[in-house]
Amino acid sequence: MAVYRFRVSFEDNEEIYREIEIKSTQSFEDFHNVIIQTIGFDNLHDASFYISDDYWRKGEEIGLRPLSDDEIEKRKRRDLPIKKQMNKCKMASLIDDPHQKFVYVYDPKTSWTFLVELLKILLDDAKGTFPKCVKTFGESPKQYKTANVVPEVDDEFDDDDEPHHDDEAYVNAHSEDETALLEGEEGEEEETEEEEVHDDEEMGDADELPEAGFDED
C-alpha cells in the first residue's frame, strides 16, 4: 500500500497551491473532499477529475455525481464515453505514471479549474490519518465574487440632495452656470449703482440752479 503526494494548484495562479497526501486505496471522492476543505470552498456543487497528459489536455472524466438513466442513454446514442464515478474509483486504479496529472474542475457554472500533479509516491504510514494537507502556499481567492449592485435612483429630487461630486462634467457645467449667473447679477448691481449716482448728480445740479426772480415794477 502506498501514499500519493499531489500538488493541487489554481489554473489561473499556479503560485497558490496545496500539497495533499492520500492513500492509494482511497477514492477520488475522498480526494475531492480534501481539496475543497483545504482551499476553503463549500461542497455544494458538482465536480469532475479528468485524466490529463503533460499538456493539461482533458481525457477521461471521473464525475462526482452519477449520471441519470436519461443522460446515460443520450451518451450511448451519441457514442460518448460514460464517465466514471469518484466514489467507485480508487486512486491506484488511474495512476499509470510517476508524475500522473489530472485536471480538476469544481462547479461547472463558474468552472474553478485546478492542475493536479503527482509529486511523490511514499510508503504508507499506519499511524497517519489520510487524506491530509501537508503544505499550504498562498491564500485562496473568494469562491463567490461580489456582484456590483446599481443603486436605485428616485424620480423625485429632494432639495436637500447634493449633486454627485464625482461627476466632473456636471461640476464644471454647474460651476460655469453659477459663475455666469453671478457675473450677470454683479453687472446688474453695477448698472443700478451707476444709475443711482447719475440720478443723484442730476438732483444736485437741479438744487444749484438759482431761484427764478421777478422784477418789481
Could you characterize the architecture of this molecule?
This protein is of the alpha+beta class. It has two domains: 2-137, Structural Genomics Hypothetical 15.5 Kd Protein In mrcA-pckA Intergenic Region, Chain A (Roll), CATH 3.10.290.30; 168-203. Helices cover 29% and strands 25% of the residues. It is built from three helices and eight strands; from the N terminus they run E-E-H-E-E-H-E-E-E-E-H. The chain has helices at 28-39, 69-77, 168-208, and strands at residues 2-10, 17-23, 47-52, 58-63, 84-85, 101-106, 112-123, 132-137. The chain has an eight-stranded mixed β-sheet with strand order 5-4-3-6-7-1-2-8, with helices on one face. It is globular and about 45 Å long. The termini are far apart. 15% of the residues are buried.
How does the SSE layout of this entry go?
Layout: E1 2-10, E2 17-23, H1 28-39, E3 47-52, E4 58-63, H2 69-77, E5 84-85, E6 101-106, E7 112-123, E8 132-137, H3 168-208
Parallel strand pairs: 4-5
Antiparallel strand pairs: 1-2, 1-7, 2-8, 3-4, 3-6, 6-7
